[in-house]
Structure formats: C-alpha cells, structure tokens
Design a protein that fits this description.
Helices cover about 50% and strands about 15% of the residues. It has 9 helices and 8 strands. The radius of gyration is 16 Å and the shape is globular. It binds 2'-deoxycytidine-5'-monophosphate. The site of 2'-deoxycytidine-5'-monophosphate (DC) has 15 residues, from helix 2, helix 4 and helix 8.
Length: about 220
C-alpha cells in the first residue's frame, strides 16, 4: 500500500497536519500525524519527571509506552497507555520535548516501525519530518511544505491561542527557530527535502483547504 501513500514533510508551523487531514478527507484515506507520536513520548517523560535528553531513561520508558492512534470522524485521536492525550500534547513544553526526544535513535526506531505498519495496512496520508526520506521512501507522492519563518511562527501563535494557550510572538518565534534547527541538524533522519519531493510554499495559498486541493491534484495526476 505504501506506493499509494502521500508523504508530507516540512518544518514547524507550516500547516502540515491540517493540510494532511484535509487531503486524507478529500481522498478518503487515513491520516497519520507522526509528530503526535513523538509528542506522546515527550509527555510520558514530563508526567513521570524524567529527563528528555537521557538515553537510558528513554530506553526504559519505551518499554512502558503504548501509543495508539484512532480516527474519530476524520480527526486523529492519540492514546498514551490507553489515556486520550490528544489535547495534552499540544503545549509548548511538549512541542519542545518532542523535538528533543526525536533526536534519540531508539525512540525513532520504535515509532518508525509502528508508522510503517500502519501505512502497510491501508492507504495513508502521513505527515512528519522524515516520511519521504526514511519512513516511506517509496510513497506515491512526496510533498515538502514550506513557508517563511515569521508566517509559520504567527500560525503557531494562532494555534496556541485557539487552544486557550495565549503566548508572546517573540517567544513563539524563538521556539520555532530552535526546534527547526534541532530537527534539521540531528544525526538520525533530519528534516530534509528529498530530490523527488515537490516543494509547496503554503503562503501562496489562502487556506490549508486550497493547499490540500493542490496536493490532491498532484496525487491524481500521478496515478
Ligand atoms: O509535527 P510536530 O510539530 O507535531 O512534531 C513534533 C516534533 O516531533 C518535531 O519537532 C520533530 C519530531 N518529529 C520527528 O522527528 N519526526 C517526525 N516524523 C515527526 C515529528
């Protein structure tokens, strides 16, 4: 099934998940937001007072962590050891933690194996940082979403505000720069645009819905 998959990668705040969800709805495929899985690992470390940077602690945690994803009326819900953590993983603290735990090779191996299994079972639109480069290298189409830094930070600020977590623009901008730098420069599966990926600047479009229509058009033309 993976050669019919749609891989969507890109930096922080580019609108990957919203766009991927809309593409999946339009094509009647499943959507998997892989960032949510790294966020769930970070939440486990936070809730248990454990260090995000400590490889031994992460290795130990991985043995105790069960992550599952369910599709609820077109929206992804994520469960950590049976508890619905869909909302809890959207804080700035978890965002930062997810980028830190994602540096760890053991964490990546476990989550990538689960992601490949999900993609093998059904047609998926999967978004993340390493989907086209590593998780699904034979995906039907690979899209790299990008947008100028300030626009992405503003988008992130809006998302936080609408989730009832207002923040300062400068702080969000700073967090975006740090997270992008870590995601692009880590040793294992850093965020890259692969040569076979099509780059779309989302700031060219008025809404994620328009970006999603463009991706659907590209996918249909590729069939
Ligand atoms: O897409 P997101 O902001 O929810 O992702 C949170 C962090 O998880 C991101 O900063 C890096 C990491 N991540 C990753 O390394 N690989 C993925 N496929 C998805 C996310």
């Amino acid at each position: 099934m993976t050669n019919t998959a749609i891989a969507i990668d890109g930096p922080v705040g580019v609108g990957k998940s919203t766009t991927a969800r809309l593409v999946a709805q339009k094509l009647n495929m499943a959507h998997i937001d892989t960032g949510a899985m790294y966020r769930a690992v970070a939440l486990f470390q936070i809730e248990n007072g454990l260090d995000m940077h400590d490889a031994a602690s992460l290795e130990n945690s991985l043995e105790q962590i069960q992550i599952s994803i369910k599709n609820d009326g077109g929206k992804q819900k994520i469960f950590l050891n049976g508890a619905d953590v869909t909302e809890k993983i959207r804080t700035s603290e978890v965002s930062e933690g997810a980028s830190v735990v994602a540096v760890n090779q053991g964490v990546r191996e476990k989550l990538v194996a689960a992601q490949r299994e999900m993609a093998a079972a059904e047609g998926v639109v999967m978004d993340g940082r390493d989907i086209g480069s590593h998780v699904l290298p034979d995906a039907g189409i690979k899209i790299y979403l990008d947008a100028p830094l300030e626009i992405r930070a503003r988008r992130r600020l809006r998302d936080l505000e609408s989730a009832g977590r207002p923040a300062e623009f400068d702080q969000v901008l700073n967090e975006t720069i740090i997270r992008d730098h870590r995601d692009k420069n880590r040793k294992h599966s850093p965020l890259i645009q692969t040569p076979d990926a099509l780059c779309i600047d989302t700031s060219r479009f008025n809404s994620p819905d328009e970006t999603a229509d463009e991706i659907v058009k590209i996918f249909k033309a590729s069939r």
